[in-house]
UniProtKB/TrEMBL annotation:
Protein family (similarity comment): Belongs to the RutC family.
Residue intervals passing through the bilayer: 6-25
Entry keyword Ligase: no
KW Transmembrane helix (keyword) present: yes
Domain of life: Eukaryota
Signal peptide region: none
Protein name as it appears in the record: Uncharacterized protein
Length: 154
């Protein structure tokens, strides 16, 4: 095994020779969890979001208030507003905004609410259109109407 690249480069310079070296510095990777009091608290063994390098992975956020109050039984619009507020709070805690969303998944217990959600989501994202999937499901935790999961670039 030869000398480390930096030593070989220095030796080449010292010997008066021409040496071309490509040095690749490996980026230090980081994984950290994120928590904000401004969004619904995790109800299990998970974090509100995880940051890996320059990407934010947001866990499924339910229409639950930051104090833990579940909005089951409230109108779809009230629940969707709360879930989107939770998403905004997590994004902001990471120093991001809806404009940095890359992908969003929405689990919805009643697909008939899709048009209402689509309109609210359009106002939330404004002119930004991240990739998105709306997934109809038979039911969600606590009888809630929707859950939002997202990925954002930091």
């Amino acid at each position: 095994m030869g000398p480390p690249p930096r030593a070989a480069f220095a030796a080449g310079l010292a010997a008066g020779g021409v040496l071309v070296a490509l040095l690749f510095a490996r980026k230090k990777r980081r994984i950290e969890t994120l928590f904000t009091d401004e969004a619904c608290p995790p109800a299990g063994h998970y974090s509100q979001a995880t940051i890996y390098d320059d990407t934010l992975y947001v866990s499924g956020l339910l229409p639950v208030m930051p104090d833990g109050t579940k909005l089951a039984g409230k109108s779809f619009e009230v629940q969707a507003t709360a879930a989107l507020q939770n998403l905004r709070a997590v994004l902001e805690a990471a120093g991001a905004s809806p404009k940095q969303l890359v992908s969003v998944r929405v689990y919805i217990a009643d697909i008939d609410n899709w048009p209402a959600f689509n309109a609210m989501y359009a106002r939330f994202c404004e002119d930004h259109k991240p990739a998105r999937a709306v997934v109809p499901v038979p039911h969600l935790h606590y009888g809630l109407a929707l859950e939002i999961e997202a990925t954002a670039a930091l």
